[in-house]
Amino acid sequence: MQLSMKALTGVGVLFAAAAVAPGIVVAQGYVYPTRGQSPQQQQKDQGECHVWATQQTGVNPGAMAPPPSGPTGQVAGTAARGAAIGAVGGAIGGNAGKGAAIGAATGALVGGFRRADQRRAAEQSQAQASAAYGNANAACLEGRGYTVK
Amino acid sequence: MRRLIAIGILASSAVLPSAVPAAPLDGSAPMLCALSSVVECGRKGDCERSSSEEAGIPAFIRVNVPQRLLSSLDGARTSPIMNVQRSNGQLMLQGTQNERVWGAVIDEASGRMSATAGEADGAFVLIGTCIAP
Questions:
Q1: Are A111 and A75 within one domain?
Q2: In a domain? residue B1
Q3: Per-residue pLDDT averaged across A77-84, rounded?
Q4: Angle between helical axes of A39-57 and A5-18 (0-180°, round to 10)
Q5: Chain B environment of A110 (Cβ under 8 Å)
Q6: Which of A73, A101, A123, B75 could be joined to A67 by an S-S link, Cβ 3.0–4.6 Å?
Q7: Strands (E), A52-118
Q8: Is B91 exposed, middle or buried (0-12, 13-18, 19+ CB in 10 A)?
Q9: By residue range, what is the domain housing residue B50?
Q10: H/E element holding B102?
Q11: Does any domain span residue B85?
Q12: Is the CB of A75 less than 8 angstroms away from the CB of B59?
């Protein structure tokens, strides 16, 4: 089957949308309009599904910070990591990263240290959150006549 | 030839230790500690080597005993020093922060430093060297 220009454009729109979520791998690959939706319609649907998936899961990939990594001692980076860990810790219910989150928020030196298990817990939670968002987004898009792979 | 000798004297005076002694490492002056090794231990007794970047620990930490403060180079992250003791050429510092307790021992002669930071679920072991710039 030959892909139409419309479909190709639609796929391009997907990647453009995915680019607004730096550092987050959303469990979603390609979106194909099975009902011949226009690129404009697809963009609209994807935008609405993003909002819906965010409401359903409480996860907004575009607003999530990437997992802890990179240089330390910088206020912005530390705060972002702390926010990520804090958000994840709250979402999952564990207290892993509690000290790190507090430490980052307050500029604490020792309080901001992160053990490997705390980092792993944060990364795992973030992956689960991303997967939940991806599933919700895919369900929405499939309901509107798109194949999501 | 005379000029070469003069240059040699200047160069050696720049390389050889100056007459001004370095600031002591006894806590009377601010120190700068560089971490060379980080180990993390969890509740199961499992310990693993890490890096300052991974563990969120500044690679360089300022130790200001007169001001009773640890800080990152940029000053954005700090931890108060709550207890200071000196014994047999060892400078010992302790503090607490965010449900963690930390302690450091600095050899006043060599600047060798080791520190721990513990919490209920695990601890860090830090090895490094301090200088008094």
A1: yes
A2: no
A3: 36
A4: 30
A5: 70, 79, 95, 97-98, 100, 102, 117
A6: A123
A7: none
A8: buried
A9: 22-131
A10: strand B100-107
A11: yes
A12: no
Range in A34-48, A85-99, B112-126 with the lowest mean pLDDT:
A85-99
Shared domain for A116 and A144, answered yes or no, is no
- Check residue B64 and give its pLDDT: 97
Q: Which range of residues forms the domain containing residue A85?
A: 69-130
Q: What would the pLDDT profile of A103-137 be if each residue is shown by its tens digit?
A: 555 699 998 888 888 888 888 888 888 889 999 99
Return the residue of A nearest to B100 by Cα. A111
Contact B42 A115 (CB under 8 A): yes
Q: Kindly report the length of chain A.
A: 149
CATH number (domain holding residue B70): 2.40.128
Q: Do B77 and A109 count as a contact with CB atoms less than 8 A apart?
A: yes
A 26-85 residues with CB < 8 A to B: 68-75, 78, 81
**Residues of chain A neighbouring B97 (CB-CB closer than 8 A):** 103, 108-111
- Alpha-carbon distance of B72 to B60, in angstroms, equals 7
What's the pTM value of the predicted model, to 2 decimals? 0.58
Overall domain count for chain A: 2
Domain count, chain B: 1
Task: Tell me if B99 and A116 make a contact (CB, 8 A cut-off).
Answer: no
Is there a domain that residue B14 lies in? no
Residue B48 lies in a domain: yes
ipTM of predicted complex: 0.76
A vs B: CB pairs below 8 A: 99
What pLDDT, on the 0 to 100 scale, is given for residue A124?
87
Structure confidence by residue, pLDDT tens digits, B11-25: 555 445 555 667 789
